[in-house]
Amino acid sequence: MTQTLEPTSSEHARRADPQLRAEAWLADFEAALSARDITRVTGLFATDSFWRDLVSFTWNLKTVEGREQIADMLDARLDDTDPHGFATSEPATADGEVVSAFIEFETATGRGVGHLRLRPDESTGEDVGWTLLTTLQELKGHEEPNGASRVLGAVHGSDPDRRSWAEKREDEEAALGRTVEPYVLVIGGGQGGIALGARLRQLGVPSIVVDRHDRPGDQWRKRYKSLCLHDPVWYDHLPYLPFPPNWPVFAPKDKIGDWLEFYTKVMEVPYWSKTTCLSADYDERTEQWTVEIDRDGERMTLHPTQLVLATGMSGKANVPTFPGQDVFAGEQHHSSRHPGPDGYAGKKVVVIGANNSAHDICKALVENGIDTTMVQRSSTHIVRSDSLMEIGLGALYSEQAVESGMTTKKADLTFASLPYRIMHEFQIPLYDQIRERDKDFYDRLEAAGFDLDFGDDDSGLFMKYLRRGSGYYIDVGACELVADGTIKLAHGDVDRLTENSVVLADGTELEADVVVYATGYGSMNGWAADLMGQDVADRVGKVWGLGSDTTKDPGPWEGEQRNMWKPTQQPGLWFHGGNLHQSRHYSLYLALQLKARFEGLPTPVYGLQDVHHLS
């Protein structure tokens, strides 16, 4: 009898079929987990592998990298988590030698979904895990009442409580914050706070969303009149209620404001407008906050257990201080308070900054015949909107993606499945392609003296946003006005203001009747300092960034967004926000963490973030 090392025909078939490959790996993975054989589990992963967990294993947002970190996480969390039921939720696919699969699973406390990528081991040829995403979707025994389990609404048969739906809502609203304390107080009623409020409402967590504006959506209505979303509609849906199919690709600010107000009403988000938070103090003994608020002139004291700052990435205006601001005779304001071009006819406007707001404001001004100069203090990443939509977002968030079967949930999971450590490697080729496609466009900008960059490692927009939240513009027309000189361009830091001018560091003097500070926003922990004191802000540390050791994102490497959507070093304090995509996607994981605590479930946090930077 002879022996051969050649694989059998059935083995050939298995290796050629991505679904069989995914099923085989998941079966081995679950068997090793069930046996609590951590060494065997880690052996199923590549040496340079990544497991990103959103709440399901770690009660945290945590990425572990490589076999040693995976083993440490499982050693701490495997017994309590008791994961099982791993299976693909739809047929796996292959791109070259890499297999990708959407998966589902259960834990002792909940049900989850995720995403898996396999690739052949370089030495053995056997499939090993490259990236694994696990996310908690619901808590067992505390599922949301939707689909087949939705509430009846009407009263059928005998019911001692004969109040109508509206009467019950009125009674609930009257009690909340007076005779019934909110378990969660969400400070900030923009898209982040509203999305989280809707999630908490569906999960039955007593909550209040408070905001200083008169109406939900005023955060958008009160911005400069030309403001539109730069992200396309497919990227921007809110939880439960997607935009209708006739919604504009790029929604104007007033439509977004109206949608948020409508959404707040139909989703029955407990929302207090005209409400300002004055202070917040945490009692470590009672594990509750004392929050002083002014609600439309009425002073009130609330005692929530959990406090969420949903004040947004674009909430804490960064207003610079320059000599001479007190003698400048004209008008000066931050971009967040810019009213638009009306009223500035015949005036000279100097806009300090060269990112998103600066371009939008300058474009609207010059299109209304106003003499406008943009002051670029450092280089800016520019990407044309149509190139970003086609090359950067098209595979996941576009009409073509929807038509090919891509759903918002699958797109979000796919995007979340890319570990931040290697995400730039996927982005660099896309922006190389964009640079080649739009070469003439970039050449014209540079010829006009505009200082361009593509990020520290040429990885473009998304990585700049995730690392620092600034330093870019999605071009919707302003750049052509810079290139042809319609928007005047100056360079350098501001040295001082005079009575009627802005003087730059090199001595250049720019006549000005109006100065707009398009100088961005500070770290969200600035809100914590205002409300709770600098000691609390320092305990929490810097909010946002990955620790990539690139410009404005100092190391060490942290692997997740600092302090966002997860436990912080300050008990009972959470941060929520970001763009509409992040407000939608991460509101689920934050809501589930809060729901678990409300129900008294054990929530041992693995890998609580250390504080390396204070602001």
TrEMBL record:
Pfam families: Pyr_redox_3. SUPFAM superfamilies: FAD/NAD(P)-binding domain, NTF2-like. It comes from the Bacteria. The keyword Oxidoreductase applies. InterPro entries: Auxin_biosynth/cation_transpt, FAD/NAD-bd_sf, NTF2-like_dom_sf. Gene3D superfamilies: 3.10.450.50, FAD/NAD(P)-binding domain. Residues 143-170 are annotated as: Disordered. Residues 158-170 have a biased composition (Basic and acidic residues). This is Baeyer-Villiger monooxygenase. It comes from Gordonia insulae.
